[in-house]
Amino acid sequence: MTDITVRTFRPTDLPVLRQITVDSFSGVALEQMLEERFGQWNERSWKARKADHIDDDCASNPDGVFLAVRGDQILGYITTRVDRHNSRGRIPNMAVTEEARGLGLGRRLINHALGYFRDQGLHVAVIETMASNAVGQHLYPSCGFEEVARQVHYAMKL
Ligand SMILES: CC(C)(COP(=O)(O)OP(=O)(O)OC[C@H]1O[C@@H](n2cnc3c(N)ncnc32)[C@H](O)[C@@H]1OP(=O)(O)O)[C@@H](O)C(=O)NCCC(=O)NCCS
Predict the structure, then answer these.
(1) Is the CB of 131 under 6 A from ligand 1?
(2) For ligand 1, what atom is nearest to the CA of residue 128?
(3) Running DSSP on this structure, what letter comes out for residue 44?
(4) Nearest Cα to 79, choosing from 60, 102, 107?
(5) Tell me: the pLDDT tens digits for 78-93?
(6) How many Å apart are CA 25 and CA 52, to the nearest integer?
(7) Distance separating alpha carbons of residues 18 and 30, to the nearest angstrom
(8) Ligand 1 atom at minimum distance from 105 CA
(9) Contact 124, 103 (CB under 8 A)
């Protein structure tokens, strides 16, 4: 753990973040559930769509994307969005490589993001998780988040 540091995103990191994303989100991604229900469309897999979310996060707030690294190796990441007008920070995505899980990196990345939000003077931080994501439902409350509401996702084929 001591040789692992947290640093800010660089544009050259993006392909690795996309790869960690597609390797990590099986079983917890809404995009995968849509594909399981409706099949593939537009010749784009759920993995391609999920990886696009990371492109959007990195384009929208690159200074608020943080990576856990050991030397040149990226072990995980967290993305953030900042709504200054409403003094609200959001964590849309995070993932840690399978080999590096359970070492506390997820918690460390969340605490880093919360420190970033506090430095920005924000009033509230939000994060969501799927009901099927047992790790999220353990980790987020243990980092200080309180459950506020549950959401239901609906979709239909057109
Ligand atoms: C969520 C994720 C980032 C956590 O990364 P991590 O580095 O393993 O996280 P940590 O080691 O800091 O903490 C994991 C916690 O979950 C707990 N945990 C692990 N598996 C669990 C399970 N099946 N059910 C409940 N809790 C579980 C661990 O015991 C640990 O809690 P503790 O610190 O109180 O002991 C990682 O699991 C991941 O990449 N998952 C796939 C992508 C994902 O779900 N992203 C979040 C949704 S946006």
Answers:
(1) no
(2) 48
(3) B
(4) 60
(5) 999 999 999 999 999 9
(6) 13
(7) 16
(8) 7
(9) no
**Residue with CA closest to ligand 1 atom 28:** 102
CA–CA gap between residue 125 and residue 113 (Å, rounded): 9
Question: What is the identity of the amino acid at 131?
Answer: A
pTM across the whole model: 0.97
Rounded CA separation 74/82 (Å)? 24
Task: Set out the domains of the chain in order of their start, with CATH numbers.
Answer: 5-142 (3.40.630.30)
Ligand 1 near 143 CB (within 6 A): no
Q: What is the pLDDT of residues 93-136, one digit of tens each?
A: 999 999 999 999 999 999 999 999 999 999 999 999 999 899 99
* Ligand 1 centre distance from Cα of residue 120 (Å): 26
Looking up tokens 């597609």 gives 22
Question: Rounded to the nearest whole angstrom, what is the distance from the C-alpha of residue 28 to the centroid of ligand 1?
Answer: 12
